[in-house]
C-alpha cells in the first residue's frame, strides 16, 4: 500500500494540465470524500470532484502545482505550494466569467489532506484568492463596497 505522502503526490500528478485525469484523482478519495476550496466556500463531493479539476484546467490548461514542501504527519499531509498557469479560458466569478487574459498566475497556496486507510477523506485547499484575482487583473472594487455599506447602514 502506498504511503499517505505518495497518495497525495499522485493526486497532484493527476491534476496537472498535461495529465489531467479527473477519474483517477477521484479514485484516490474515499466514497464520501470531499474537496474543499476554502477561500471560495466551495465543497465538491463524489463525481463533482473531477469536474472541479476540469473547470480549473479549462481556464488554465497548463495548470501546474509547484510543490515547495510536503510534510506527512500520520493521517495528515500538509503541503506548501504555488498554483501556476496561463489564463487561456474563461474564469468563473459570481457575477460572470473573466475572459481569457493570457496572464500568468503564480498563487501561494497551502493544502491539508486528511487520509483514512490510504484514501483521501478530506482535501482542504487554501489558495490566496486575492492574489489570484489580482494577477488576473480583477482587483477589488472598494468604492462600491464602501457605498454599499453606507447605504446598508442608512448613512
UniProtKB/TrEMBL annotation:
Coiled coil: none annotated. InterPro entries: NTF2-like_dom_sf (IPR032710), SnoaL-like (IPR037401). Residues 14-120 form the SnoaL-like domain. This is Nuclear transport factor 2 family protein. It comes from Desertihabitans brevis.
